[in-house]
Amino acid sequence: MSEAVSFAAVLVFPVAMAFAAASDLLTMTIPNRLSLALVAAFFVAAAATGLGFGATGVHVAVGLGVLSATFAMFAFGWIGGGDAKLAAAIALWVGPDQAVPFLIYTAILGGVLASAFLGFRALPIPAFALREEWIQRLHAPGNGVPYGIALAGGALMVFPEGRWFQAVAAVLS
């Protein structure tokens, strides 16, 4: 495949992470089509950058492992379904080399995010925010935390260390 295809396929990942974080912040949902697009783009990027069949299989195994764990977390009501699917799609991309750092960064960011929301929800909502439905939704004590922000943040933290960033750098150099 051409370098332009490699470049475009790989750049889908950071753009999708920004979209996932923004979507979860504003709507408290992560669209299924985003996770599906990430899975499809992974296979295009893998082919475009020469990721071998065996290595692709290992990435798929990591993604399926995370999907199994996050599905259980969803079943217990600990995370949302969109979070579970996004985490699995991210794990597919980060693969075995970056999966543990991704999960650690995500856990740390998730703790910071949850603490920030507890603090935010303890304060009275500012008058200007009463006009904004998404701010009211975030402020409501019974609502969850938009964990897609932590997932996207953890993914973007490991992105420069992975093979995909190296593929982008090779095209740019």
UniProtKB/TrEMBL annotation:
It is a multi-pass membrane protein. Keywords: Cell membrane, Membrane, Transmembrane, Transmembrane helix. Residues 11-114 form the Prepilin type IV endopeptidase peptidase domain. The keyword Cell membrane applies. The keyword Transmembrane helix applies. Pfam families: Peptidase_A24. It is found in: Cell membrane. GO terms for cellular component: plasma membrane. This is Prepilin peptidase CpaA.
